[in-house]
Amino acid sequence: MSVSQNVLDYDLKKSIHPNRLVGLWRLMTGFRLNYLGANLSLGISALAKTSTYVLLRYFVDHHLVARDAAVPLWGIALGFIGLAAVEGSFSFMSGRLASLTAEGVARRLRNYVFDHIQHLSFTYHSKTETGELIQRSTSDVDALRRFFSEQGIGMGRILFLFVINFIAILQLNVKLAFISIAVIPFVLLVSLYFFRKISKLYENYQTQDAILSTTLQENLSGVRVVKAFARQDYEINKFERDNWEKFLRGKRLMQMHSLFWPISDTVCNIQIVTGFLIGALMTINGEITIGTYLAYAGLIIWIIFPMRNLGRLIVQTSTGMVSYNRVMTMIKEDREPLDQGDHAPADGLQGKVEFKGVGFAYEEGSQALENVTFTAQPGQVIALLGSTGSGKTTLVNLLPRFYEYTTGSILLDGVELNRYPRRYLRRHIGIVEQEPFLFSRSIRENITYGVGREVPQEEIEAAARAAAIHDVILSFEKGYGTLVGEKGVTLSGGQKQRVAIARTLLKNPRILILDDSTSSVDTETEAEIRDALQNLMKDRTTFIIAHRIQSIMDADLILVMDNGSIVQSGTHADLVASEGIYQQIFNIQTRIDDELEKEIASVG
Amino acid sequence: MSDEYFEEEEFKAQVNGKTLRRILGLTRPHLRWVVGFLIAIMVVSGLDSLFTYLSKLIIDEGILAGNKPVLYRLLATYGGLTLVQAAGVLSFVFLAGVLGERVRYDLRQKMFNHLQGLSLSYFSRTPVGWIMSRVTSDSERVAELVTWGLLDSTWAVMNIVTAMSFMLYINWRMALIVLAVLPILFWIAYEFRKRILGEFRNVRKFNSKITGAFNENITGVRVVKALGREDANLKDFSVLTGDMYRTSYRAAWLSALFLPTVQIIAAFALGSIVWYGGGQAQTGGMTVGGIQAFVSYVTFMMWPIQDLARVFAEMQHSIASAERIFSLIDSVPEVKDSAEAYDPGTMKGDVEFENVTFFYSDGDGKPVLEDFSLKVKRGETIALVGPTGGGKSTIVNLVCRFYEPKQGRIKIGGKDYTRYSLHAIQSRIGMVLQTPHLFSGSIRENIRYGKLTATDAEVENAAKMAGASDFIARFPKGYDENVGEGGNLLSVGQKQLISLARAVLADPEIFIMDEATSSVDTLTEALIQRGMDTMMEGRTSFVIAHRLSTIKRADRILVIEDGRVAETGTHYDLLRNRGKYYQLYTTQFRHQMEQALDLFNQEITQGI
Asked: Residue B595: is its pLDDT beyond 80?
């Protein structure tokens, strides 16, 4: 039951192999004994089943017909019970071991994929869709799990049943044995043919199911529009159309099923009736005993009918293989090495940042930053001003090494930035986004999210107070235990931002990156956030991505950016005095106040 | 929240006769199909028992008697009957399968149709996910019960009865041994099934948690990285997968134990038969074929038993599903037409609120509006301003008659509007929501939603009037451009313009607009303004306003606070008062000018 840490920590990258069967075998590392055990148990169980028929033969021939049995009647009765017990316990063992394997493999795969995803680079994440990643980590992993628990074992079962029972019939009579497998290729062909079609039809059915769900969901979430335009009848018609299409596709699927079962039944039955006929004639002619006939009549069913499932298993396995590929292409991606780097001063950072001719390109040829040079002394506030796409965000993303600068050099406390391990840098850099992402955990957990230690309640509250969110939190029914998001309380943009500020205060970083846009926040909270930010910026080297001049007039250095380069830099006083973009913006903002005065004056 | 969450919501029902009858009633319109598959399955099931009996005859009267003609005859009968059985299989799979799809279809349609008539209050207190799982998974489960559930149990009962009859006929003493084991077998099978079902529900629960964790870690990956939470998150996640592992293992373990247990118990019956029957045979009371038949019947007996147990175990959940479906179908709309409701042909006229008090039934019972009175003249434009939660949306909802006043009344054209039909009112109201809702499909289809019979020229004209035609023309496919699920391929501003065009096309008599707070670029903003002007021209309009230009243009401004009108008047009157409006206006002015004059043409930046 318990799985050793070794097995859990196995690096699944090693299980990548161009041959998918080899890959699947490697995925089982650490569980192979279980899996072999599962198959072995299956074999023993099949053997016991076959022996039951051999025992039946002995019973009939020596007790009922000849009455020359060496084994007493009660012994035979016990034999039947004993064989059933053996068959049952080993089939149980097999199920148990197979599920240990499948669930173990799935668990390891889930953990690995989860960890892998959070270690993939920003570059990977920005070009991959969320839905796609989720599908790979959930349904594709599940398809692999099913491969180990159902298809792999299922095929093993069919093969064992076939081999063991065939050998048993061979023992009974060679002629009978070969006659009884004549039909197997047909059974296999029929089931393969139908299951290809069935799985295709099933896919169609599922596609329509998704369409119908979307229609329903859009109707429900747009209920006000539907009502406001009184479009109920139209909606009913639309849903009816999709709904009917789903019915039709379901009907086609069922039609295929309703053909498969009787047709494959008939093919199997032809074999069985022929077998009965030949067996019976041989018995009458004295070639075999009546007991042999009975054993044969029982065994033949266990050879033929399971074959019907083989087609289904083969078709399902091919979907499992597709999933293997999909999961592995993801696992193939390189992780971002968090601990690579040789410089991690134990006493923390001073916070001096120097950019010297820094350049960066997301892709070959499109330069996102070019020749950026400036110096930030410890504790200074650096403001970045510029339009969307001017490179402000890219610039700050270089600091925690979310991306690696391609040219020039960034010195942090005099040391090249890429000598610091990423983990170290991120521990000492705090980021407050404009619309911060909160996790669907309690507010308390969200505040302590980045700290990595137990935090006493007083400390949490102190941070929340400094972030001007404490009172808001207390106004919720469950206070700090309130769940964020669904099923819980919805926080406004400003409230989220203040939770993120509290989170960053607790983390206590040397360097701070702020996205200071308050456009989505109403005016009342704007002042509160401003105070909270002031608390946060104290004594830290701060980079502000700014959108308005008011918030950065006190900055030690303002960088005006355009098209990936710094076009102007200096303090507010410098920049206002010299001609350029900054001056223009400033003038506009002062004009606003004049206009307002005029407007109010005009009404008297 | 995933569907599973709502599905797993514990809701076990006792098997209750009334619900069961109502469930079976679902098949009434398709009674012939039910009768058809029941007959087919009974034939199939009876033949299964008969085949075993035929095998006995083949042994006793064919082989042992050495009688070849009899053997041929028996085998020919056997072969012929397998064809009959194949026909039976074909019929029942087809009939039950297609009927199942049909019942699913019926149930979904019935629920959907009913939902269209329910009031807004129902939707505001019922999560979308809850309704979705009623329509999807619950209907699935109920349809399963009335088709395959009914079929399997009929097959099982028929099989047990016929097999028992043959056994009684062959040797009644031995048959009684088998009969004694049956209840034990059934009880064990049922207990197993119940537990297995419970375990698999737990597995599903954990599974949806795992999906949730993946979802969150992927969407929040930037924060995870920035805060260095990788190790802690993996630890939390490992706990989850560990739980999943143990639960799945338990479920698989129980399932693996189930059949062997039943088999071993059946083996005891088999042992007794061999022992007792062997003795009988030696004294001539039992033939070889007879014993073989017993062995077959008993080994086979566990299948009907386990089927029956499964249906019984699942029935409880299916009935719970049915009860949830019925609760949806039985819910009564709170706002509905009175018996003598009529369509006066127009909604032009004054709109009056007379001492209206309103509170949301699912809220804390505190009135959102209290003793609220307002008279809006035909063609007048009213701007509603004030803090969130003050009651602006409620006023608009009442005008649309999404809700009705709890006290007081609302008159349109001088008459209490509850005397009109809902359709009469709502088909003459045009509405643009704060977060515009579009349906997947083309732009054209979305605009045409305002007037289904509109020609392409009318659609395009409406777009032009709403100021949407320019950006639409820039799409490669123009009006046939796909908007994506919920319109997510378009920007917020574009969605607003399209929903405005939709309202223009509807040519309503009353216009309602809830202005968006989020910023759109200056050009789009100007287009929206122009479109609104077109709409408000000559129509009674209510605007929940955030933009100064809209506010200033209104005939009357109402500052709504705490469910009442705090100030009212024109822009100039109110500014002069230096009251609440003055404060609102000056802060908003600053804010908006900063945005409008922003050299950077600022948009809300995407996260770091």
From this structure: no
Report whether B528 contacts B520 (CB < 8 A).
Answer: yes
From chain B, the residues in CB contact with A262 under 8 A are 86-87, 89-90, 93
Which chain B residue lies closest to A394 (C-alpha atoms)?
B608
Using the structure block, give the residue that is written with the tokens 């039709």: A248
CA dihedral sign of residues B149, B150, B151, B153: positive
In the prediction, which pLDDT does B519 show?
Answer: 56
Tokens of A565: 């380069």
Instruction: Assess whether pLDDT exceeds 60 at residue A119.
Output: yes
Q: Per the CB < 8 Å rule, is A604 touching B270?
A: no
Condensed to tens digits (0 to 9), the pLDDT of residues A139-192 reads: 899 989 999 988 888 888 899 999 999 999 998 889 888 888 888 888 889 988
Q: Give A334's contacts (C-beta < 8 A, 6+ positions apart).
A: A121
Whether residue A199 sits in one domain with residue A141: no
Inside any domain, residue A502: yes
Q: Which residue has the tokens 């409701």?
A: B341
Whether B217 sits inside 8 A of A515 (CB atoms) is no
pLDDT at A498: 85
Which pLDDT band, with edges at 50, 70 and 90, does A545 fall under? confident
A106 inside 8 A of chain B by CB = yes
CA distance B153 to B146: 11
**Total structural domains in chain A?**
3
* Average pLDDT, rounded, for chain B: 86
pLDDT of residue B517: 62
- CA-CA distance, A586 to A570, in Å (whole number)? 14
Q: In the CATH hierarchy, which top-level class contains the domain B3-330?
A: mainly alpha
In a shared domain, residues A482 and A585: yes
Contacts of B519 in chain A (CB under 8 A): 519-520
Residue positions counted in chain B: 608
What CATH number labels B350-428+547-597? 3.40.50.300
Q: What's the CA gap between A102 and B532, in Å, rounded?
A: 61
Q: Are residues A58 and A13 in the same domain?
A: yes
The CATH number given to whatever domain includes residue A503 is 3.40.50.300
Do residues A436 and A578 share a domain? Answer: yes
Q: For residue B370, how far is the Cα from the chain centroid?
A: 36
Q: Which two tokens stand for residue A368?
A: 């996102």
Per-residue confidence band for B227, with pLDDT thresholds at 50, 70 and 90: confident
Half-sphere exposure of B339 (CA within 13 A, CB side): 0
Do A408 and A502 reside in the same domain of the chain? yes
pTM of the predicted structure, to 2 decimals: 0.82
What pairs with residue B514 in β-bridges?
B544
Rounded to whole angstroms, the Cα distance separating A582 from A369 reads 20
Q: In the predicted model, what is the mean pLDDT of chain A?
A: 87
Least confident span in A111-125, A209-223, A393-407, A429-443: A429-443
Structure token pair of residue A198: 């069935």
Report the C-alpha dihedral over residues B22, B26, B32, B37, rounded to 10 degrees: -90
- The pLDDT value given to residue A424: 92
pLDDT at B598 over 70: no
ipTM above threshold 0.90: no
Q: Which domain, by its residues, includes A487? A: 353-603
Do residues A56 and A205 share a domain?
no
In a domain, A539, yes or no: yes
Query: What pLDDT does B139 receive?
Result: 93
Q: What is the mean pLDDT of residues B104-133?
A: 90
A355 interfaces chain B, CB cutoff of 8 Å:
no
The average pLDDT across B125-141 equals 87
Contact A517/B605, CB-based, under 8 Å?
yes
CATH of the domain at A318: 1.20.1560.10
User: Which residue's structure tokens are 């919501």?
Assistant: B9
Residue A389 falls inside a structural domain: yes
Instruction: Please answer yes or no on whether A110 and B431 come within 8 Å at the CB atom.
Output: no
CA distance B527 to chain A (A): 21
